Fold this protein.
Amino acid sequence: MPPPTAGSAPPRHPLAVLGGDVTVRVADGRLLPYANLDVAATAPCAVVAADAVTRMLPTYASVHRGAGALSQRCTLAYERARASVARFVGCRPGDQVVFTRNSTDALNLLAHAVPAGTTVLTFVGEHHANLLPWRRAVRLPLPRTPDEAVAAVDEALRRHGPALVAVTATSNVTGEVWPVAGIAQVAHRYGARVVVDAAQLAAHGPVRMAALGADYVVLSGHKLYAPFGAGVLAGRADWLDAAEPYLRGGGASAHVAVDGTVRWTGGPARHEAGTPNLAGAVALAAVCDTLTTTGWAEVTRHERWLLDRLDAGLAGVHRLALFGAGHPRTGIISFTVPGLESAEVARRLADEFGIGVRDGLFCAHPLTRHLLAAAAPAAAAPATAVRASIGAGTTAEHVDRLVAAVAQIAGR
Ligand code: PMP
């Protein structure tokens, strides 16, 4: 099948990543370069992130807890990392950046801080991280179009009092871009707030709070080429300052009396009790700074080139059911091979072709089950889907190998 895009190499991505030279042995004994097509789950480590952590390690010491020179230096590095993240997401004056473990942790923190009596509106197609933490939740049905999503929020807000709308920027199942700005415009008309789950957007396009209309954003370092276990909740300070600390302990407490009475600190430290994750923050800041400097044009060109090639390749494979193709989206495509369980497809891609993909329901069970049911009559539909995802480090050869492998598997 002819490649749909000119040339044999995509435009350059501004982030170099580690792991491009990793090889794996496949079933017939050959050693193949590993084709990591599961970057939506966890992205490879950016060289700038690894370098920043390596540079910091010889002076590694406690953050916010010591008078020594190294402790001072590490405290500065940690707070500079917070400022880098704030620049990356376009925080407004007075907004807070709280470091968390990941997006799940950040959404649970916000759920903990939502004032009593606030209704949380989500769509049933959200990732479980944005579906399960909310206590007083109204789950809107899957919209068929972006306009329908905006109208559903409008309609629901008419019936509810104070509200928070919790919506993803891009789907982790299909990569589809959600009409977040339109939803936020409607939400703000009702005085509601909006939290944007940018876990899947952050590595693929700008996460700018003003442009998204977000009151809060969450993201995960490990999906943004910055492993080491840091995530972020950024946004308005008032709910966070008014909430009980998310974690209780040192760092969050300004004064503790003998009888146990506590005066808690304000600011991000209120929700960051315990020794913070300096390596995670430093790694994340290095990637944020790089992307803030380079902008997104190269990322978009790189991804578009590869995604067009992947879409065209998979569209040419007989009988495949594709989810998300044809819609504006980031670098994800999910599919099923009729008559074959997706776990079997993923296993063969790994064992025979050295390709890493994800199979399952992608922690978005309602959405993935809906897509599966819509693609095939219940009896014929595989129970789960396969997801391929691309990013920095993905090459044309990875994409071509996947297309050829899927064609071979589907053909038998
Ligand atoms: N939201 C979306 C859209 C995601 O794809 C994910 C991760 N798959 C999460 C939230 C949760 O991210 P984490 O596992 O890093 O907490």
Summary: Residues 102-104, 127, 129-130, 168, 172, 197, 199-200, 220, 363 surround 4'-deoxy-4'-aminopyridoxal-5'-phosphate (CB under 6 Å).
